[in-house]
Amino acid sequence: EIFERALWLLTSQDLAGEHLLVTAGPTRERIDPVRYLSNDSSGLMGYALARAARQRGAQVTLVSGPTALPAPLGVNLRRVESAAQMLDAVLATLPAATLVIKAAAVADYRPCQMAAQKLKKQQMAAPSLALEKTPDILSQIAACKGDRLVVGFAAETERLLEHARDKLERKGLDLIVANDVTQAGAGFECATNIVQILHADGRCEALPCLTKWAVAHALLDRLVALRCQRAVDSQP
Amino acid sequence: EIFERALWLLTSQDLAGEHLLVTAGPTRERIDPVRYLSNDSSGLMGYALARAARQRGAQVTLVSGPTALPAPLGVNLRRVESAAQMLDAVLATLPAATLVIKAAAVADYRPCQMAAQKLKKQQMAAPSLALEKTPDILSQIAACKGDRLVVGFAAETERLLEHARDKLERKGLDLIVANDVTQAGAGFECATNIVQILHADGRCEALPCLTKWAVAHALLDRLVALRCQRAVDSQP
């Protein structure tokens, strides 16, 4: 804790006055009281972003799905399990937020209904799990975006830039961080990441293999720059 | 490590000469490279059994699904992900094992096929996940049981003893540990457990709320007693 507080003192407070809302980790969508659908997200990227932004002076709310990570110091951590719970927590924080980074790997689908009791093998003769879409959190954020800067992530296994650019445009994002999760040194449950940052104005920056901590600071640098740009653009 | 080794010296070596094969944790059944089906098992019970048996002089092989737990000292740990991988690891160890405890919460179902690439929302218009049964590890153990003592677990949310007794008989188990995972202080991701131990001879013992460490020793006590009983019964 002393080390962490010393880091804050030694770091430029270029995010002072901002309130970052960051989501992290996977979500779990329940099939019954013991079974669920989930994904490999470790939460490392979102937690690194929360810690880095706090260090740079932002107020930070971290909405996190189930992870094994400790709460970053000085960050308002809200733990949730499902996509629906994550949406509720995001919407509750959104009015106060000035920056939004959606680093969570939210499940796209969930079972249409959750069984109240554990399903028995014998009950499932022709087993098939009917799925429905989970609420689209990014679209709901985009719908009331206002002056906020909003960043998304695209973790893909093929046609990375195409999928990422499409997502950026559909969701009205300012930036999207694209990474190919099949690359060694990238993606889920990995301390490093190899990302490309796509901007709304069409720019694409390919970063080298970096720790998630360095990726977090690189991304926050871009947000600070965008904020400056906006301030300049709005001058009469 | 010194503490752990001291514990071994201070503990009755009543499992010396035995080779315990214990399974632990959940399994993950992949839908695509990033998504999976899983369950809430933490692995605590299986890891406690492995450590307790090692302390009492057994050679121990621990076949574990994905957990956040460290490897117990002196235990041969084999990490696996899916039910199919767990079966392979169990069958490879089974010939050498004299005691088998299946504490893992193996997925009963898996997707019929795993997609090679991450599925896109747009690709899944009428989403439904076709499932198939995973291999039944306990039945395969039962099929070549020999002189081994075999223990299963039944984690249920309703009609606990009925389900557990049925499972014990169908799988030819010597003991089954039944617990209602909906009870406070019991079940998955919990340091304590409230269990009933059902014997093949019809006995049922209800234990109080105990740490999983204490439940592990209680279960190993029953195995030692069964082993003695068998030795007596086989006297001419």
Kindly estimate the percentage of residues of chain A that lie in beta strands according to DSSP. 25-35%
**Beta strand count of chain A:** 14
- Give the second-level CATH assignment, the architecture of chain A: 3-Layer(aba) Sandwich
- When the domains of chain A are counted, the total is 1
Low-confidence stretches of chain A: none
Order of helices and strands of chain A: HEEEHEEHEEEHEHEEEEEH
CATH superfamily of chain A: CoaB-like
Number of contiguous helices of chain A: 6
User: Which two chains form the greatest contact, residue counts included?
Assistant: A-B, 35 and 36 residues
Please summarize the sheet with the most strands of chain A: 8 strands, mixed
Distance between the termini of chain A: 45 Å
Mean pLDDT of chain A: 90
| Structural class by helix and strand composition of chain A | alpha/beta
Question: Using only CA atoms, what is the Rg of chain A?
Answer: 19 Å
Oligomer: homodimer
Overall 3D form of chain A: globular
Please identify the top-level CATH class of chain A.
Alpha Beta
